[in-house]
Known about the structure:
Blueprint: H1 4-30, H2 51-72, H3 97-100, H4 102-124, H5 130-146, H6 157-165, H7 169-184, E1 206-211, E2 215-220, E3 226-228, E4 232-235, H8 253-259, E5 264-269, H9 281-300, E6 306-310, H10 312-326, E7 334-338, H11 356-366, E8 371-372, H12 374-383, H13 386-399, H14 408-414, E9 419-420, H15 421-433, E10 444-445, E11 448-449, E12 459-464, H16 472-478, E13 486-491, E14 509-512, H17 520-525, E15 528-531, H18 535-543, E16 549-551
Parallel strand pairs: 4-5, 4-6, 6-7, 7-12, 12-13
Antiparallel strand pairs: 1-2, 2-5, 3-16, 8-9, 10-11, 13-14, 14-15
Helix pairs in contact: 1-2, 2-4, 4-5, 7-13, 9-10, 11-15
Amino acid sequence: MMSxxxxxxxxxxxxxAGQQFMEGFFRQFGQKGPFPDGTMPAxxxxxxxxxxxxxxxxxxxxxxxxxxxxxxxxxxxxxxxPVVPSAATDRRFNAPEWAESPVFDYIRQAYLLNAGxxxxxxxxLPVSDAAQRNRLQFMMRQCIDAMAPSNFAATNPEVVRKxxxxxxxxxxxxxxxxxxxxxxxxxxxxxxxxxxVGRNLAxxxxxxxxxxxxxxxxxxxxxxATVCKTPLLIVPPCINKFYILDLQAENSFVRHxxxxxxxxxxxSWRNPQAGQSHLGWDDYLDQGILSALKVVRAxxxxxxxxxxxxxxxxxxxxxxxxxxRARGEDPVESVTFLTxxxxxxxxxxxxxxxxxxxxxxxxxxxxxxxxxxxREFSQVFSxxxxxxLVWNYVVDNYLKGNKPAPxxxxxxxxxxxxxxxxxAAYYLRNTYLENRLREPGALTMLGEPVDLGLVDCPAxxxxxxxxxxxPWRTSYLGRxxxxxxxxxxxGASGHIAGxxxxxxxxxxxxxxxxxxxxxxxxxxxGASETRGSWWPHWxxxxxxxxxxxxxxxxxxxxxxxxxxAAPGSYVKVSA
Length: 575
């Protein structure tokens, strides 16, 4: 038992160490972010006179003492409930090796205890600006995740055991994997040799029927004798390649839509190279969406097709429809938005990368011409879920020496695309930074003031409950901006898995609510959960807006004859 003087000395030591760590942490990041002006907020003094900080430190020290006593009193071979259990979703410490050894069990629990303490410290810092506070907490989480004992060979018992079992061969192979990834410039997440676009990815039959500097337009071959009269134009994200919607036959959203008797057209955005580095937002609207709509109308002789936009493709699509409505046109029968933001009020952790300083730097660097490399986007998106998309592969590939398993979705994830600098700078400033798209008339595109309220066709919104790129509650705000009837559907899982969820697998679930309350919380409280994919629900909604049955259409027309076979050439260009 320690005396009161000894206890106080330990407490003082904890407080001094905590103060030094936090000062060092903020000094490191204060110079280059997360603070736009390069200054740090004043840190609170961790003194014995500060009751809140004192209580936090005391509780931290008490739990460390409890942890140490639990480990010290543990008998050999005895199973003991952890003092600091892992979260149910944290897979880093699931292997039995972590619990079998008192040493590694202590390392694991001590890390989790310290991680929780640092998270509480970040939450309690007296930073009044919400954006700065969120940025601080985000950077703290990045540091905490990076310092996990699972990320280091000597403190990961799974790595140690495999090295012993293979007589060091796993470490040698891990080093070779690391060298290979350094040469590629990215972490390998899948066996990339297992896939090829056009061979076993993006294989739904069809043809390129039009192309320009910005995109190729694909029309897919029918798979039914008759089709709905009204076609569907799909606008995928230009940040990634379109075949996330056409992976393999069993999980292809495009193939599923074609099988429902829908004539499907799809925009395949060009992967910009130096020759396209001048393209801006208006170019993507005009040469992309508006040109595609013109061709779809000419080929099918239908004045008002249905349209669908995914992620930033949905943002572009909404803007294009608003431009056409400003011109007095009634352009489409319906619109579907998949994980799309129209109101950028709350963008999640991505906002930690977007401030006036960073956007101004992009404008100065590439805003008049240049490319934003696809690798930059990949790194940002991976950092939003570092344990799943970074450290998991560092441990498996480099420390354990494993080869990644084939996974089509992760192959697509690594197949990044560039963005033209003027387009990227415009997008970042007017959506993420200033959120002007939601304001009627605040933006002028193609010479027209944009008002999303003029888009009054029926709209179907799909969001994903665990989406870290488009938070579902933010997606919900978009339906309040449009002028027509809207329906909102919430899928399970994240940004991609929530969308790519074929019915045959009967995985996950989705929520619906016919009511249209103002808040997402009220909507969810009244929503009903349905097991399985949302695809059939959407298909039924779309067919009700797709007209009578007509003879199936083969790709192209006299004016727009088929060129190359789908998936075309643009999608095969590497970043």
